[in-house]
Specification:
The chain has 180 residues and is mainly alpha-helical. It has one domain: Orthogonal Bundle (Hypothetical protein af1432), CATH 1.10.3210.10. α3 crosses α6. The termini are far apart.
């Protein structure tokens, strides 16, 4: 059933994110989404102790509430409440005042749900720890790295493979872009 769920979620996300680009590039946003999904599928090959169907749907849909006109109810109706709850937990609460406060709030909501949601957040950050966009200030690059460390600290024991991969990506990012 995973292939059908993947295809249905990807079609939905593709329509919702159709005008969105990967920040700092001309690439369609589906590139980011497919990279997060790939991290989840690869992790499943190493450690199959999680519900890959839930994880893959949440991975593909993780930014739909935050970045598009999609709401919780629409995702719940199409993909089920548990997937919608996962996507909602991965969505920043914009009413909070600071980025750190938004991240801590999201991490708390993620930790209140199944490990599948936490491993999607880890996969998302792994994917985002690429060369930063040229327009980012040195301070923003350093803050992004610190945020990644916060994610690693709060989302331990979700998936050993992804936890290690995130820590490795943080070390590389810090060496190449923060300390350079």
């Amino acid at each position: 059933m995973t292939q059908e769920l993947y295809q249905e979620a990807m079609k939905f996300a593709g329509e919702k994110h159709s005008e969105q680009k990967v920040p700092g590039t001309t690439a369609n946003y589906l590139l980011h989404i497919s990279n997060v999904a790939m991290e989840v599928l690869t992790a499943y090959n190493y450690e199959s102790s999680f519900d890959v169907d839930t994880a893959i749907q949440v991975a593909i849909l993780h930014d739909t509430i935050e970045d598009t006109a999609t709401n919780f109810e629409e995702i719940a109706a199409k993909f089920g409440t548990s997937v919608a709850e996962g996507v909602q937990a991965l969505t920043k609460n914009e009413t909070l005042t600071s980025k750190k406060e938004m991240m801590l709030d999201s991490l708390e909501r993620i930790n209140s749900l199944s490990k599948e949601i936490g491993l999607v957040k880890i996969a998302d950050r792994i994917t985002n720890l690429q060369k930063p966009p040229k327009h980012w200030s040195r301070e923003k690059v350093a803050n992004y790295c610190e945020e990644a460390k916060l994610i690693a600290k709060h989302l331990t024991n979700k998936n050993e493979y992804l936890n290690k991969r995130l820590n490795d990506k943080i070390m590389t990012y810090e060496t190449m872009y923060v300390k350079s």
